[in-house]
């Protein structure tokens, strides 16, 4: 008699099965914490708060962590995306947007960007520190994640990673987690819906550079992608997977982007990657109107550079209210995103980004002219 050998479950099937079990059980922190556990949790929270002062400190912490633990791909992806968040923040005090948006709108948009950046860090960095401590103690400590208000989804993922070291599944899972974590707390927040997303929808999608995610490398080179549906959780997760593909599917590009990041500490100014176009010192003369200065990402002869301030000179540190409670994980359908369907993307974005800068300059000049004629 011939018996069919039972097929071994795939890693994603194992994760789905474990998560299904967790959905049936009401979560509770029933584990009795030891004194050692309590000390560790306090230490993790203290270190997270220390690095969570502003976009520059967060961004630096991600890179330093990745250099210690290159197996945690998300740490470098998070570093590069956080750099873009900082550039978006300082744009609000830079050359173009000070003329295109009201002071109130710029403050609202900064609060939106800053809250999202802060929330992601206070959720993900404790996870990274707990993994680091698990390595030191040579045993998984992920049962402590619930005491750090981390989703049960990530407890399953970290335990799977500890056993299998599947870097791709792990990074995609963190992309899913962080975007899902933001969904109700920021994207669906009525205040941000009213004051930011709806009011600036046209500007965000069709004019400004906020939807470009840029990865500088080499000598003034850029890779990246553009997001067109910022309010869609599905699209943001797919964007994260595309960004991951650009960075980690090509070892040569990854090496060059990492080397660039190490050589250029994040300041928040776009001068970090294009000092021939941007300067963190305002070279302009108040009240003086300049002709169009940029064409195909080159300044016309004799033109001054565009003003892009550092974060420390643009915005003060923000004291945030505590993160809203609750676990976003309610449906095992999100596991489908874990499938490694990463396409090879060349990430060519230079032409598109150059055209955006040209549109911004034209819009700024037009707005200034209109105001002058009034």
What are the defining features of this structure?
two-stranded antiparallel sheet, mainly alpha, about 375 residues, disordered C terminus
How many strands? 6
Which stretches are poorly predicted, pLDDT < 50 over at least 5 residues?
A: 369-374
What fraction of residues sit in β-strands?
Answer: 5-15%
Tell me the strand order in the biggest sheet: 1-2
Strand count, sense and closure of the main sheet? 2 strands, antiparallel
**Gross morphology:** globular
How are the SSEs ordered, and which strands pair?
Elements: H1 11-24, H2 35-51, H3 55-68, H4 73-91, H5 97-100, H6 103-137, H7 152-164, H8 167-187, H9 190-197, H10 201-206, E1 212-217, E2 221-226, H11 233-248, H12 251-263, E3 278-279, E4 294-295, E5 298-299, E6 306-307, H13 311-314, H14 350-373
Parallel strand pairs: 3-6
Antiparallel strand pairs: 1-2, 4-5
Helix pairs in contact: 1-7, 2-6, 3-4, 3-6, 4-6, 6-8, 7-8, 8-11
Structure description:
The chain has 374 residues and is mainly alpha-helical. It is 56% helix and 5% strand. It is built from 14 helices and six strands. A hairpin with a 2-residue loop joins strand 4 (294-295) and strand 5. Helix 3 (55-68) packs parallel to helix 6. The radius of gyration is 22 Å and the shape is globular. Residues 369-374 have low confidence and may be disordered.
How do you describe this structure in short?
With 374 residues, the chain is mainly alpha-helical. The chain contains 14 helices and six strands. The chain is globular.
């Amino acid at each position: 008699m011939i018996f069919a050998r039972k097929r071994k479950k795939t890693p994603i099937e194992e994760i789905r099965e474990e998560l299904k079990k967790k959905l049936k059980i009401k979560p509770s922190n029933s584990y009795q914490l030891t004194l050692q556990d309590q000390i560790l949790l306090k230490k993790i929270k203290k270190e997270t708060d220390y690095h969570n002062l502003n976009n520059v400190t967060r961004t630096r912490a991600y890179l330093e962590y990745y250099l210690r633990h290159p197996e945690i791909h998300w740490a470098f992806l998070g570093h590069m995306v956080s750099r873009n968040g900082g550039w978006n923040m300082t744009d609000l005090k830079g050359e173009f947007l000070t003329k295109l948006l009201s002071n109130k709108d710029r403050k609202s948009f900064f609060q939106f960007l800053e809250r999202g950046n802060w929330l992601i860090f206070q959720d993900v960095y404790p996870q990274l520190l707990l993994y680091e401590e698990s390595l030191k103690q040579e045993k998984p400590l992920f049962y402590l994640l619930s005491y750090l208000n981390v989703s049960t989804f990530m407890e399953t993922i970290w335990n799977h990673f500890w056993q299998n070291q599947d870097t791709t599944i792990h990074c995609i899972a963190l992309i899913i987690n962080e975007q899902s974590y933001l969904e109700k707390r920021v994207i669906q927040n009525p205040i941000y819906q009213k004051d930011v997303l709806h009011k600036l929808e046209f500007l965000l999608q069709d004019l400004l550079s906020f939807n470009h995610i840029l990865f500088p490398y080499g000598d003034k080179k850029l890779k990246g992608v553009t997001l067109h549906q910022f309010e869609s959780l599905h699209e943001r997760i797919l964007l994260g997977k595309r960004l991951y593909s650009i960075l980690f599917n090509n070892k040569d590009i990854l090496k060059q982007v990492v080397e660039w990041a190490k050589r250029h500490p994040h300041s928040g100014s776009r001068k970090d990657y294009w000092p021939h176009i941007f300067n963190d010192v305002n070279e302009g003369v108040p009240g003086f109107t300049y002709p169009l200065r940029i064409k195909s990402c080159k300044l016309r002869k004799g033109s001054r550079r565009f003003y892009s301030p550092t974060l420390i000179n643009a915005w003060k540190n923000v004291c945030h209210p505590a993160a809203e409670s609750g676990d976003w994980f309610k449906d095992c359908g999100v596991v489908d995103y874990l499938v490694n369907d990463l396409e090879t993307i060349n990430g060519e974005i230079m032409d598109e980004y150059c055209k955006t800068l040209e549109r911004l300059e034209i819009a700024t000049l037009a707005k200034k002219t209109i105001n002058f004629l009034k």
